[in-house]
């Protein structure tokens, strides 16, 4: 045998071993589910709540410790057990629900109505909601025979089938993160007698599907549903001379494509549907946004009761009285009864010009006294009110695990001997007001600190936050390694420049949009939002589509057209202080962004130009208390660009925390000698890990 034959045999042997282990993993997961069922049987009799936060936290902590001994990444353990716990919670909810809503009907298979034909998204989603192991959370009863899906040409006929009793359940898409609420479905829910009994969210991954391999530019017709056109508009616009042919649903689009016999046609549908029709995927993930989620509801002729231990939602439609502040009064009634709204949407009422119907979802159970009292009060303030349903919520909140707990270092070596520092409130210098050239940014205008929430990461909430990453994104390997290192050491946000403001035009200018995709891929893979610099107004919209936070660099602090453009985006912004900008000019520059509408801004001191040449910049550490007194916005320090050499970065970073900054943005690199930009100031990975451990030793209050 040749060497390559030997290594091929070895590879296939190893793969077989892996297959065997995976099978065992699945068997173990199934066994674990059986135990969960046993747990809920005892909880049901003892009337204990489904979730026990303390037990979940100690379980994850224990698994992290056990995993460490086996050399497993704590982050992986946390992710894995979040999923396992979520599955267990859902299973327990399903069981409680079916206990509450009647005995299982074993003989007959339940009929489920959906819009479209087999293979359409509604069909696939319905299959996944209703035939998952365990009982469907939504269904009033469990059915061993598996559901029988019946397709209808329209949403109306789908709802009619449930209303008339010819189908027990119906599956309806209700809203999508890209294309918004589906008005027709809202109208049907409003005007029929069906109730929402369940919900589920799905990541809809649209694919371009053809009869055979063909270049996208050669396509002449694309068959797709109206929703697919709305969700894949950017992709469709990028194909010149190609017409769209509407189909009622994605599977019908595939059917029409197949029947056309034309290889220059394609359709938009799911990969699974392509397989069902024996067609070929030409391109995956063509939706405008990667996170393209659709929420589906399950409807039934009669409402279900939800066990009080199951987190549930109530959905209602209402129109308020014709008087000023009527909507506010209803919202106050919800607030007074401690009710948390998860949705408030207004929609015009068809054939009823100038009237609006409000659709509200909130966390609660119709049987709960606070919900009853709130609805009682709200009813007085409305002209019309209808409860569309009360059903188990599809969102399972993950168990809270602190960064410290999931950080990779062993507890005894990392146990900080802390230094406690009290940062006294600095008396606010008289500032603010239009005469100073800024108003919205000033503390006089808004005394409370601004807290910026980026996908659950909170900037400025009193916890010191670290943004870390390389100066520039250079390659997939490099940014992946950095993301892993950042996350494992407790950094919350990943940085990486893709458009680089370089002093010399001959220096590396960044990987541009290709780099942005790599940065986002790395951030997603390690569960971190990303920040990147945008340098021109033309790039703002495109970068803002993907990056979680936009950075305006020091050299652009007074680029007013850029500040205005950034003010119109909805993404949080980090504005860096200009090399020679006094604090007042930084605040005036910030005012441009807030005046444009965007209130989610934080500032960054990154070293200024002085006569001193020993460091790259002079870190103006006093800018932190001065800014804190003058503005409500969070203040960060960038020790890397101020220092210019890696040895100085850690002491400056520690000083930043001690002086009361909200966080730092710091650069590191897997191999600083090979860095394409700012290598001398990049921390080595072990230096970064040490800095993160040292930062934990400082406690600021
Ligand atoms: C950066 O953070 O990548 C950067 C270029 O910083 P500054 O704008 O502060 O020079
Ligand atoms: Mn840099």
3D structure, described in words:
This protein is an alpha/beta fold. Among the domains are: 62-100; 105-199 and 296-304, Periplasmic binding protein-like II (D-Maltodextrin-Binding Protein, domain 2), CATH 3.40.190.10; 207-286, D-Maltodextrin-Binding Protein, domain 2; 426-675, Aldolase class I (TIM Barrel, Alpha-Beta Barrel). It contains 23 helices and 27 strands. It has an eight-stranded parallel beta barrel with strand order 19-20-21-22-23-24-25-26, surrounded by six helices. Strands 1, 2, 3, 4, 5 and 11 form a six-stranded mixed beta sheet that branches. A five-stranded mixed beta sheet has the order 8-7-9-6-10. Strand 19 (465-469), helix 15 and strand 20 (493-495) form a beta-alpha-beta unit. Helix 1 (3-46) crosses helix 3 (74-100) and helix 18 packs across helix 19 (583-595). The chain is globular. The protein starts with a helix and ends with a strand. Residues 471, 497, 501, 533, 553-555, 576, 606, 638, 641 line the site of phosphoenolpyruvate (PEP).
Salient structural properties:
single chain; 701 residues; alpha/beta; D-Maltodextrin-Binding Protein, domain 2; eight-stranded parallel barrel; six-stranded mixed β-sheet; 23 helices; 27 strands; 39% helix; globular; binds phosphoenolpyruvate; binds manganese (II) ion
């Amino acid at each position: 045998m040749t060497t390559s034959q030997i290594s091929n045999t070895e590879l296939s042997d190893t793969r077989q071993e892996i297959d065997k282990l995976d099978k065992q993993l699945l068997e173990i997961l199934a066994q674990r589910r059986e135990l969960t069922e046993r747990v809920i049987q005892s909880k049901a009799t003892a009337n204990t709540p489904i979730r026990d936060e303390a037990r979940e936290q100690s379980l994850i902590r224990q698994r992290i410790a056990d995993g460490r001994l086996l050399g497993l990444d704590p982050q992986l353990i946390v992710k894995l057990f979040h999923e396992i716990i979520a599955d267990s919670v859902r299973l327990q909810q399903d069981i409680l629900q079916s206990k509450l809503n009647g005995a299982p009907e074993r003989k007959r298979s339940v009929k489920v109505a959906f819009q479209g034909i087999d293979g359409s998204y509604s069909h696939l989603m319905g299959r996944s909601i209703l035939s998952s192991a365990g009982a469907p959370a939504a269904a009033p009863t469990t059915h061993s025979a598996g559901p029988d899906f019946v397709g209808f040409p329209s949403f109306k006929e789908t709802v009619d089938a449930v209303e008339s009793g010819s189908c027990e359940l119906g599956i309806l898409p209700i809203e999508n993160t890209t294309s918004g609420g589906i008005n027709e479905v809202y109208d049907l829910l409003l005007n029929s007698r069906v109730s929402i009994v369940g919900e589920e969210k799905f990541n809809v991954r649209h694919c371009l599907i053809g009869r055979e391999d063909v270049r996208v530019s050669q396509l002449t017709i694309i068959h797709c549903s109206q929703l697919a056109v709305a969700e894949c508009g950017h992709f469709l616009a990028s194909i010149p001379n190609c017409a769209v042919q509407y189909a009622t649903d994605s599977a019908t689009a595939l059917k029409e494509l197949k029947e056309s016999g034309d290889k220059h046609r394609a359709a938009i549908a799911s990969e699974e549907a392509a397989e069902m029709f024996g067609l070929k995927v030409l391109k995956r993930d063509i939706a405008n946004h990667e996170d393209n989620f659709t929420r589906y509801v399950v409807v039934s002729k009669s409402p279900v009761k939800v066990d009080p231990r199951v987190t549930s939602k109530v959905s209602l439609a209402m129109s308020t009285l014709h008087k000023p502040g009527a909507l506010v009064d209803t919202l106050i009634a919800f607030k007074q009864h401690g009710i948390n709204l998860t949705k408030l949407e207004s929609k015009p009422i068809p054939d009823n010009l100038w009237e609006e119907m409000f659709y509200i979802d909130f966390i609660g159970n119709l049987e709960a006294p606070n919900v009853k009292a709130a609805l009682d009060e709200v009813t007085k303030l409305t002209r019309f009110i209808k409860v569309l349903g009360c059903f188990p919520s599809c969102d399972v909140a993950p168990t809270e695990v602190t960064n410290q707990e999931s950080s990779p270092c062993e507890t005894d070596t990392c146990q900080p001997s802390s230094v406690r520092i009290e940062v006294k409130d600095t008396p606010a210098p008289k500032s603010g007001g239009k005469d100073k050239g800024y108003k919205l940014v000033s503390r006089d205008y808004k005394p409370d600190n601004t807290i910026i929430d980026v996908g659950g990461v909170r900037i400025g909430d009193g916890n010191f936050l670290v943004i870390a990453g390389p100066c520039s994104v250079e390659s997939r390997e490099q940014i992946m390694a950095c993301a892993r290192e950042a996350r494992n050491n407790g950094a919350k946000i990943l940085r990486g420049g893709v458009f680089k403001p370089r002093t010399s035009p001959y220096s590396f200018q960044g990987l541009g949009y290709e780099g942005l995709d790599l940065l986002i891929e790395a951030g997603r893979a390690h569960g971190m939002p990303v920040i990147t610099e945008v340098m021109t107004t033309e790039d703002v919209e495109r970068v803002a589509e993907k990056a979680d936070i936009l950075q305006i660099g020091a050299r652009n602090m007074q680029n007013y057209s850029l500040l205005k453009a950034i003010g119109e985006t909805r993404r949080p912004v980090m504005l860096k202080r200009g090399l020679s900008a006094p604090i007042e000019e930084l605040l005036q520059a910030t005012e441009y962004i807030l005046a444009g509408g965007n209130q989610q801004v934080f500032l960054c001191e990154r070293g200024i130009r002085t006569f001193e040449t020993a460091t790259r910049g002079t870190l103006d550490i006093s800018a932190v208390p001065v800014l804190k007194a003058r503005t409500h916005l969070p203040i960060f320090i960038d020790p890397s660009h101020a220092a210019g050499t890696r040895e100085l970065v850690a002491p400056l970073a520690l000083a930043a925390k001690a002086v009361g900054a909200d966080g730092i943005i710091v650069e590191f690199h897997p191999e600083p000698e090979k860095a394409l930009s700012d290598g001398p100031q990049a921390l080595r990975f072990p230096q970064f890990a040490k800095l993160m451990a040292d930062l934990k030793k400082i406690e600021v209050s």
